[in-house]
């Protein structure tokens, strides 16, 4: 489990009884943010802004809190419940979209038991939903996911049309010779499709930062960001233009005033230095500004010694 698996971060929320276990989980997981004791505002933020949520409380309490927030399969974050003693980690929502993996990781870190109930994992299948994350896109129409699963679990193959099959998807084969097909971009009615995101890279950098190009490109490669889909790179530092040139895309220079005026519910807390300048952050704000009103924060800011990088996106077409 690494940062690229949870690009929007993992929110950890607990009851007062589960606070100690919640703190252990937040320290043990990559890109985890402790949002504190349960409140409606904390839960609203978690569902809107994070890839995963860990609720440290009773299972019944967690069900009551999230039952009104459940949407279509594959929408929203993966949710795992951990009891206040840390004995069990139970995937609650979006098992195939990361909740099973998150529960297993928590069990390894805490020495607890992961309660996995889905068929695909028991059969050793890589979840179909991993495709959307790996391809930086989203499935449409989502109501077809369950139908595809039922046929794949019965041994049927699906064809990948318009993309190479990532490692671990033994039930996929490239081509168009299957009755089940998954299209990339060029969607066909009646078939599952991965609609790719237009990607926008926001960069924050210290004044003394040198040679941003190599460092930022390394981080993007670690995150498996497809370079050809980057529509623009933005920053408050002119030096970041070298990254845009390397990617062959547009560069947008922002002012600090533009960043100060921008507000978004999913922005991460700023550093002490940025807060003293009246800024909540730079990289995430720039990426979201470029993505526009329908933009989504896809990768929460990655901190390096001299710079930060964030990725936002909008669905194409």
Indicate the radius of gyration in whole angstroms: 20 Å
H/E order of the elements?
EHEHEHEEHEHHEHEEEEHEHEHHHEE
Give start-end ranges of low-pLDDT stretches.
Answer: none
Named CATH topology of the largest domain:
Nucleotidyltransferase, domain 5
Helix content range of the residues, please?
25-40%
The CATH first-level class of the largest domain comes to: Alpha Beta
| CATH level-4 homologous superfamily of the largest domain | CobE/GbiG C-terminal domain
> Any idea how many domains?
3
From the N-terminal CA to the C-terminal CA, the straight-line distance is: 32 Å
Strand percentage: 25-35%
SS-based structural class?
alpha/beta
Largest sheet: 9 strands, mixed
* Mean pLDDT over the full residue set: 89
The CATH architecture term of the largest domain is 2-Layer Sandwich
Instruction: Count every beta strand, where a strand is a DSSP E run of 2 or more residues.
Output: 15
Number of helices: 12
The backbone outline, from C-alpha atoms, is globular
Summarize the structure in words.
The protein has 317 residues and is α/β, with parallel strands linked by helices. The strands form 2 sheets. Strands 7, 8, 9, 10, 11, 12, 13, 14 and 15 form a 9-stranded mixed sheet that branches. The chain has a 6-stranded mixed sheet with strand order 2-1-3-4-5-6, with helices on both faces. The longest helix has 16 residues. 32% of the residues lie in helices and 27% in strands. It has 3 domains: 115 residues, Rossmann fold (3-Layer(aba) Sandwich), CATH 3.40.50; 64 residues, Udp-n-acetylmuramoylalanyl-d-glutamate--2,6- Diaminopimelate Ligase, Chain: A, domain 1, CATH 3.40.1390; 119 residues, Nucleotidyltransferase, domain 5. The relative contact order is 0.11. The protein is built from 12 helices and 15 strands.
């Amino acid at each position: 489990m690494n940062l690229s698996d949870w690009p929007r971060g993992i929110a950890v929320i607990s009851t007062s009884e589960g606070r100690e276990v919640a703190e252990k989980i937040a320290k043990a997981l990559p890109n985890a943010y402790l949002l504190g004791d349960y409140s409606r505002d904390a839960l609203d933020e978690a569902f809107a802004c994070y890839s995963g949520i860990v609720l440290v409380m009773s299972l019944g309490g967690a069900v009551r809190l999230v039952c009104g927030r459940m949407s279509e399969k594959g929408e929203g974050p993966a949710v795992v419940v951990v009891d206040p003693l840390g004995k069990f980690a139970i995937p609650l929502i979006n098992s195939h979209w990361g909740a099973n993996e998150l529960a297993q990781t928590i069990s390894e870190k805490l020495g607890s038991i992961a309660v996995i109930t889905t068929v695909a994992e028991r059969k050793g299948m890589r979840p179909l939903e991993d495709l959307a994350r790996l391809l930086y896109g989203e499935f449409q129409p989502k109501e077809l996911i369950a139908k595809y699963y039922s046929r794949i679990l019965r041994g049927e193959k699906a064809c990948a049309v318009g993309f190479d099959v990532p490692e671990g998807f033994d039930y996929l084969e490239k081509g168009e010779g299957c009755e089940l097909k998954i299209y990339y971009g060029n969607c066909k009615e009646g078939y599952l499709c991965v609609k790719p995101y237009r990607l926008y890279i926001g960069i924050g950098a210290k004044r003394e930062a040198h040679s941003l190009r190599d460092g930022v490109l390394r981080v993007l490669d670690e995150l498996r960001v497809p370079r050809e889909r980057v529509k623009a790179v933005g920053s408050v530092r002119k030096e970041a233009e070298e990254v845009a040139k390397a990617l062959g895309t547009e560069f947008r220079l922002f002012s600090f005033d533009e960043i100060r005026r921008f507000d978004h519910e999913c922005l991460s807390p700023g550093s002490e230095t940025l807060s003293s300048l009246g800024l909540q952050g730079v990289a995430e704000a720039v990426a979201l500004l470029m993505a526009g009103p329908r933009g989504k924060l896809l990768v929460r800011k990655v901190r390096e010694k001299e710079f930060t990088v964030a990725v936002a996106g909008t669905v194409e077409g």
